What does this fold into?
Amino acid sequence: MTLPLSADLIADANSRETAALDEDYHALSRKLARTGIEIDAIKTRVTGFSVAVPSWGAGRGGTRFAKFPIAGEPTNIHEKLEDCAVINQLSRATPRVSPHFPWDRVSDYAGLREEAAAQGLAFDAVNSNTFQDQPGQAHSYNTGSLASTLEATRQQAVEHNIECIEIGRQLGSRDLTVWVGDGTNFPGQQDFARSLDRYLEAASQVYAALPGNWRMLLEHKMFEPAFYSTVISDWGSSILAAQELGPKAKCLVDLGHHAPNVNIEQIVARLHRFGKLGGFHFNDSKYGDDDLDSGSINPHQLFLVFNELVEAELNPREGFDPAYMIDQSHNVTDPIESMLSSAEAITQCYAKALLVDREALRHAQQTNDTMMAFQALRRAYTIDVAPILAKARAEAGGAIDVLATYRASQWRTRKAQERKVVGLGAGIV
Ligand SMILES: [Mn+2]
It folds into this structure.
């Protein structure tokens, strides 16, 4: 295996941080021991945690309105994989990449899988794209895709999804994530029931093509690009569609795809209750589907989501095995730095959720002691778990200070000399 950054560079940077980290880890271990928590056990769970990164997140395309490329930005899937390998080498928390088609199309997928493996990476859920037209495409998606009124368009969307499954098989994936932009901008534009019928009929053809161990993850989104209605608008539509399609269909929750202030942690608990929680897209938002860095706006919500996910781990239903993925992209930071920061924010919330005293929480809930129930969560949320994460990373060969080490590597400056200049153009959704 050839990792992109020099192991010596990471070891050097770590050597300057080790003494302080050991002190902090020790202090935290004593604090946790007083409440009966063994810090090494938490560290082991943290080491086992991982989240996939999106191939498109390696570029600066997130804004809907303009793209401001940076020098050294990746221009194709091979360069995106290199950047994802840097993120994983430093964080040791992102060993999988979620590809997107047709954006990441190549002629040799077995070769791409090997190329990724040689850099310590595997492939996660495959994402289909029927929300924009491609050059030379026979039928436009301007009438929608899986729910289009036009049969030929629906068929084309079905075939694209089946092609994504075939690509995913070659890449070693086992999930197909389906998000459609289908919806309306005017009352009366489409019939709510008939458009859902068309979606379900087309989606069932995709479902029928899933290999035995595969899952189809349905991603709901309440608005954008359609602003009056969308076909799979919310978790209700999503779980109904997933139940109609069958056991291999699950729901995927993207944190930014809900109305403001919606109780997403409760949605997580509900989906899990019915064995339909299949995946997660982590990001953050202030107003809507902003795709901001995970935990940058509302880290407490992220913690509460993880509190439910840890509950789900403890009480698994129907093989609880969610596909965790970062789904963020914007144009004001180096995407590698953003994903390093987000992977850390996500893992921190997981670690804090592991620290919740479940017995105390359950007892307080059972005896209707509201304040102590709330405090069981609050106590865990306010603990600084950074030393646990840093120790886990360092022991796995990653960096204690991921951002400082990344900057010291001068990766982007070096790539700016090797890579082609990225063009301007529209962003992505
Ligand atoms: Mn998403």
Observations:
- The first strand starts at residue 53 and ends at 54.
- The mean pLDDT is 95.
- The chain is about 45% helix and 10% strand.
- Residues 219, 254, 281, 327 surround manganese (II) ion (CB under 6 Å).
